[in-house]
Structures are given as C-alpha cells and as structure tokens.
Amino acid sequence: MSVMTRRNWALRLSIILNVCVLLYVCVHFGSWQEDGTNWDTAAAVPLVQDNILGSESIQINSSLKTAQEARATKVTGSEEKKHVDTSTTGSAGGTKGVDATKFVGKDEHGLEGQESRPLVQPSISLKDAVGCNDKSLEPRKAQRGDYWVLYNYVPMTMSVSCWETITYTTHGDYTFLDNLEPLLERWKAPVSIAMHAPGNDFQPTLDSIKYLRNCGSPLVSQLVTFHLYFSSKHVPKVVPPSEKVIDEIYNCSLGAPWANPQYTSKMYKNEKKLLYPVNVGRNVARESAVTHYLLASDIELYPSPELPSKFLEMIRRRDQPTLFKPNPKVFVLSIFEVDEKSLPPINKTALSKMLKSGTAIPFHKKLCSSCHNVPKSKEWQEAPETEGLHVFHVGKRTGPFVHWEPIFIGTNSDPWYDERLSWEGKSDKMTQGYELCVLDYDFLILDNAFLVHRPGIKIFKKDQRREILTAKTNVLISKIIVPELKVMYGVRKGCAV
C-alpha cells in the first residue's frame, strides 16, 4: 500500500472518530438538560443569614434541593435525637405512644405524603435553626428573695435537648394537680411546674406527686419536672432528699391527696391566710425549663393537641415574612372557656362549632373581657382551619388592647413577672405586658392553635378580701412598680399598665 493510500485511510478514520465523539457529547448534553440541572446556579449557592428567633446562619438552595433531599434531612434529624425515650406510655383510659417525632413534626413541609416544595427551604436541621444550649435537670436548693426553692426536686425521666420540643411552664398548689393529666394528654411534651408548698402543705404536696407518678399516667414521670417553693417564714418540718421522694412507692388505694377532705379542709396556706405568690411560681417554672421555647401558662388552660410539633414545624419552615421582622416577638394563643358539660375541643373546627352554639366563649368574657381581647379575634374565629400553623395577625398592646394579658410561646429572653404581685391582688401579669409594649414587641397571633380552660364558665363572684387586696395592689403598681419600670425600660406612647 502506498504512502498516499495510508494517509487517506488515516484521515477517514480520524473524521469517523470525531463524529462519534460529537454524537456522544450531544446525547449526554440532552440527558443533562432533561435532569433539569442548572450548572450556572449550582456554582453559586446563596447564603441567607438572620438572627430571628435565636437562629444561626441558614444556607438555602431553593433551586437544587429536591424532595428526596428533604426526606434525607428528616432522617438525619431523627438520628440526632435517638436518645429521646420513645417507650409506649398511656393513661387509665388507654395506651398512648410518646414518640420523639411528636416533638419535631411530620415531615420537612408539615404535610404527609406531599412532594411539593415550600418557597423557602432551609438546608439545616431544627437543631441548628433554634440554636440553644442544653440545661441540667440536677436537683438543687437555692434562696430566691424571701423564698426557698427546691429546683428540679422531682425531675422528669425523659432526656430532651433544648431544640427539639417546647416546655409548658406553670404553677399551683397540690389542689390543682387534677389538671395535670388532661393537660399532658393534649400537650405530650415537657412540663415544668412550680408547687407552692409552705409549712404543713409540704407533705400532701409530696404525696400528690408520688400518687401521680405511681398511680397515674406514665406521661407524668416521663415529662413532668416538679419544683417546690415556700417562704422562709413557713419552712416545712422535714425536707427529704430528692432521691427518697423519687424512689418511694405510693399506696394507690389511698387515692389522690387533693381529693382527701382531711388535707383540703385544713390547708396550711388557708389557715395562715397566706397570699399565693403566683409570679414566684411562674418565674421558677419558666427559668427551669430545659428547652429554648416555652409556653408560660396556667395549669387549668389546656392546649390544642400537637401544638409543640406544629409550632416547631413553622419555625423550621421559615416561609412567613413576619418571622423575619427585626422586632422582638412572642407567639400568642387565643383562649376560650367551655361549659361544664362539654369536653375541650380537639381542633379549631370543633371550637368554631362550639362558639356558634354558645357552649364555648372567649376567655374571661364575663369577668374581664378587655384583659383577653385578642386583636382580630372575630376574624380569627370566622377563619376556617388550615393545615399546619401560621401567623394569623401581628398585634400590639396599644389602643383597645392596652390592658391585654396575652399568654404566649416565648423564651427566657422575654421580661419576667414581678414577684411582688400576688394572685389575690390581681393584675399579676399587667406589668409584664407593659414591659413588652415599651420594648416594642410584636404579638404574633397563631391561626390554628388555642388554649381552653378546664370545663366550667367563670362568672363574677364578689370577694371582699380580694377587693381590699386589689386596691392595695393597684397602689403598689402605680406608685412604685410603674415608676421603676419607666426608669429601667423607658416609655413609649400608647403603653400602659
């Protein structure tokens, strides 16, 4: 074969190889386009930073993150909280499961079986979104002004990280503990409760705790932490070690101490005519909460079911502009009462029907309607129930709502309750409300979440002793506390106690 012939064959072979390479590239380029991958956007993932709600920096890639990646994020989050006890628990009425997923929610979007993506997709876990430090549940004793406090005297057995749920913080004496199990059945998350137990009321308080832990729902021992407090002028005769109280078995045949007339007819607090230091209890329970978010409430107010998981899904979803406003904020719950023959509604749809029939009314409507007159309350009641949890309206404690006493989900960064005020003197939350107003807090009213007072609509009852104490409290607030608050926090137009 001549040299010229060999060159012609080499040229032809080169052309054929080049055509094959070109076809190969075209075929694979088409498949890349079908995959929908945008290589220009993949090279530059935006970084979104904010300090809202105590969160850290959040990386968001809304163009690339797929539903499969969202589910993978969920699995990672689940593995991070494996230490949470998921044992089966129940009450006398049946067996209920306490699953760690109750604390976090259903999926990344707050919906089951949905492939669609939200407008904003955080690429980090709830743990990173909340950003907090865990706290100890070790029992300790300390003085708080005139009071001795036994912090974490009987701690819950479940191990919970600060980011994965919400704590219901509350207060009371042992006669209010019949509310604990119905509250837990709806809340199914940690409860921090401060018990006022002066003098001879200390022992029935211990017996009530033992009764609940040994004879009631397993949710009590798993999820409730009890703190006890009493004045230094009314110290009990004996204060046993925390370990002894936890280990002792209660004789369930004796029944609940709060139902025993032998105890309730001779309460030490009543015999000594002691005032109930409601705000000491509120602050002790709130300060001791092991989670970042908390709901500071009264033990007779039962929350709508699944509130903790739905709230945290909303925080993680972060698809509402109101969450990114610079003002400090709290998340307000609407409150209602139902008649004594009715059960508390399990969702907003059932609540709406009860409001229309008159078996439910707004909280304290017959006692102090202005105290719990929530902004846009009529619109809230008329709005239909929706999936998940959202901010319905952003309110302020001014104008017609200047005396509003909201109950809300917040953190320990929010103002405390003034411990000089008592339950008998009333207005015990008004000074905190003033501080929130002066600090220009936004009150983010949640759409599908609410609180319901234990069955029985309250009516006004004349109480001469309380009227005298109320007058004294009003003088204390106007002459001493408000001038102090103006020095410490300043003033803002429209804010009042």
From TrEMBL:
Chain segments carrying region Disordered: 71-100
Keywords tagged on the record: Membrane, Transmembrane, Transmembrane helix
Domain of life: Eukaryota
Transmembrane spans: 9-32
Protein name: B3gnt1_0 protein
Organism this protein belongs to: Fopius arisanus
